[in-house]
Structure formats: structure tokens, C-alpha cells
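Re: the request from the purification team.
They wanted to know what the chain is likely to look like in 3D before they choose a buffer screen. I agreed to run a prediction and write the result into the notebook, where they can find it.
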Amino acid sequence: MDKENAIEVREMSKTFKVQSDRANSLKALLVVKRKNRVEQHEVLKNINLDIKKGETVALIGTNGSGKSTLLKLMTKIIYPTEGTIKTQGKLTSLLELGAGFHPDFSGRENIYFNASIFGLTKKEIDKRIDSIIEFSELEAFIDEPIRTYSSGMYMRLAFSVAINVDAEILLIDEILAVGDQHFQDKCYAKLSELSASDKTIVIVSHSLDVVKKLCSRAIWVYKGSIRLDGAPAYVISEYLKQSAIDNKEKKKEAIKLGTAESRGATFIDKPIDFTYVNENTKELKISGWSISDNPNSHCEVCIGKTLIATNPESRKDVFEVYAQDYAGFIDVDTIGWYATVDPNDFRDQVDEAGNLYITSKVILEDGKVIAEAKVTVFVED
């Protein structure tokens, strides 16, 4: 193995056995009693890959592309069907919530339990436990059994241990998508700090914005093969082009089969819920975004029951989050919207409790609402 590499993959393929009892014909279904068949499902095909020491690399791809399987193979939780995968240096991973934890142990006990699995002695853990607990922000719950923890609390504890076990290689799946935004930001800031050191980090993430900011390299896994490997901005751009083609093809096929369902989402950024206004408030800024995979849908923004006119707005932040699932159906320059109104013009829409409701809806041609958001503005007399 090259001494400059942290991970080497050579001619590696992975096949899973899938149990199947599907009949091949009507006769087999009605007449022949068949035993379950075992089918071979090739998830990864002839992967060749070098990851250098100190690199921060993202694996991107749609669900089912094989990227998470590739990450698991790097941890040696599972093994390749063909080929080899080698790592050089102490490795830790964050792949599944609760992995390496005992549900009946307290958070504190699990720190000792989990860190010892990664090779730390009790004396070494004693020196680090305060910083582990502090980073996790779980001081009030650290002596409670972790079966009482939420998924976000699990993630906090797991991440805090993982960054304190002196690993040279850190592998992270979508676990960081769990929990509140504050702690996610804290985790990514820590990963950015680690990436500036000599640590090797490999992450699977659907957050393309995070990939661009954090990673020096992106690897696009497409239908079990490496489609592209290079600078994150370029790889992501090509990935989204293909996603747009694939999404449209899937939609076309679903329409042909009569199984097509429209999806959408909308959100009101301003005003925030329970904003107070009074007769001296002459301007109320309203803004948000709406997306849909149905080209014939539209967005309506209402104050009370009154439809208001909005202006389109570019929303790169929203596009980055939803681009993979909605590529081919959304335009970064028009998914946002905004308007400025005088709330006094809508006093006839205020209810007895002084509430004025602002709603945004994504509506199909037949009038069906597929997404809705609402905020409440309190109007003082």
C-alpha cells in the first residue's frame, strides 16, 4: 500500500444476496410450489480509488447509488465480494445511530465503553471525558440511560466521542443530518478544523453546500460505479445535470404507468411566527420559497383570504438543499418570492383574537394543495 494513501480500493465489487419468491410465469404462480430463490444484487462494480492522507472527501449520489455501501466497506463492517480495500491509520466511523453504544448504560458509561472500543485506556478517557461531555452539550443528561435519548442526543454523544479518540481516518454517513441546526453547524465547524490538520475525512452527505465548503474532493457514485472524481463544484454540477435527466425520466415513466404523484414544499421565512404589528407599522416584508416537481403547479401567497402579488427571487440556499430530488423541475432564480405590504390594509382579515394569518400554498391544476405553510402575525389595536 502506498504510504501516502489512507485508503486504497482495487478492483472492488460488492454483491448482496436477496431472497426472492417471485414467480416467473402465471403457471409457476398458480401451479408450481416454488422455493424461495436467492438473487444476486451487485451494488458496487469494479471500484478503484485512492484517498490520500489528510484529504477531506465527499461521496455523493442518489439513494441506492452505492455510496453508503462503499463507506461501510471502508470501515470493514462488511467485506467486498471481489477485490480489495485497505486502510492505513487508526479509523473511527459514524454510520448508524446507536452503533457501539449499550442502551442500558448511561451516557457517561457509554463514553468509556465506546472510547475503549477505539483503543483508548481508562486513564486516557479520564483525561478527555470532560471535553467530550462539554462538546456534546449533554451535561444534564449524561448520567441517564441512553435508551431515553432522542436521535439528536445520540448523534451528539457519538460525534463527541469520535472526534476525541485520536483517529487518523474519520468516516461519516448521513448521521449529521439528525438533530438541531445549532449542533450540526458546530459539528461541521469541528470537521473543518480537523480537515485543516492531517486527518483524513470521508463523508456521505446530501448537503451539497456542505460538500462545497468542507471538502477538497468529491466522488460521484452512480449506479454502483464511480462516475466522476474531482473538484466538488464541478462534480456537483455534473451530478445535478444527470439528476435532472433521471428525475424527468422517472416522472415520464410514472405518468405512463399511472403512478405519478406530485411533490412539493414551501416555507415562509418572513415574517416569523407571532410578529407584532400596529397601526404605525406601514411596511411588512414577506418572503419565502416554494418548489414542486409538477411543472403545472403554482404558488399562492395569501394574507387572510386575500391573494397577494409576489416577486420572484433567487434562492441558492434552498436550491442546494433540494436540487438532488427536484433537479430538472426547479429554477434557482425563481423558487424564492417576496412582497412588501402595509398590514393596515388587511385589518378586515384579522380575527377576534387579533391574529392575521399569512399562508403560502403549492397548488396543482386541479386545485389540490400539495404543500402549505402558515405564520401568524399579531395585530395590535
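For the purification team: Residues 18 and 39 are 5 Å apart (CA to CA).
Please add any questions underneath this entry.
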